[in-house]
From TrEMBL:
Pfam families: Glyoxalase_6, Pterin_4a. The keyword Lyase applies. Residues 106-207 form the Glyoxalase-like domain. It comes from Paractinoplanes lichenicola. This is Putative pterin-4-alpha-carbinolamine dehydratase.
Length: 214
């Protein structure tokens, strides 16, 4: 059951259940009215997953919502088991929905990635992982930091930008909101994979989805 599934297959399998595929995970939100209710939701999700919860399910309990995340940890990707667990949680009666889901990444443009990675790993206390993988917070709280290869030095443009991953069916709304707030489109050549936006002073951010990456 731990066979990796494609982004498209994962998205298709869970979208109708109120889940969304985002950055190698399946995510859903359950609205609650208190921490006590949130704890009950968490217990219900764990019960639905059974013994497989420890390897696949992560839960963030807040006073107004519970965010459920499914990923096969030892593979750091979505597998058929994760899809099945999302289906089990949905079948348990939890009102899962895709609202208010997003993931933040920080991208650092660098000429010599191997030289700058150790600094960022040390200063953030992040795990390095493989040379082509992002730095990650061992506690799972902070945003991932990844490095983008530069072809030539840049002195007139920022070299750190934010990547905001949202549910694929929310991306256009997020872009429109940024434009109404004074932003501009730098490039949409890779949309819907990502849109490069900039604020009025040229600082950049990307609105990203899983689409167009398989």
């Amino acid at each position: 059951m731990d066979e990796r599934v494609t982004r498209q297959a994962a998205s298709d399998a869970v979208s109708g259940l109120g889940w969304r595929y985002m950055l190698g995970t399946l995510r859903a939100s359950v609205p609650v009215g208190s921490l006590f209710q949130g704890a009950s939701v968490a217990l219900q999700a764990v019960a639905a997953c059974g013994e497989e919860a420890d390897e696949h399910l992560s839960i963030d309990v807040r006073v107004d919502r519970v965010v459920l995340t499914l990923q096969t940890r030892r593979q750091a990707t979505v597998t058929a088991t994760d899809v099945e667990l999302a289906q089990r949680i949905a079948a348990s009666g939890l009102p899962t929905e895709p609202g208010d889901l997003q993931l933040l990444e920080i991208a650092v443009d660098a000429m010599d990635i191997a030289a700058v990675r150790p600094f960022w790993s040390a200063v953030l206390g992040y795990a390095e992982g493989g040379p082509s993988e992002p730095l990650t917070d061992p506690a799972g709280r902070g945003p991932a930091v990844w490095f983008q290869q530069m072809d030539s030095p840049r002195t007139q443009r920022n070299r750190i930008h934010l990547d905001i991953s949202v549910a694929h069916d929310e991306a256009v709304l997020r872009v429109e909101a940024a434009l109404k707030a004074g932003g501009r489109v730098v490039s949409d050549e890779r949309a819907p994979s990502f849109w490069v936006l900039a604020d009025p002073e040229g600082n950049e951010a990307c609105i990203s989805t899983w689409q167009g990456r398989d």
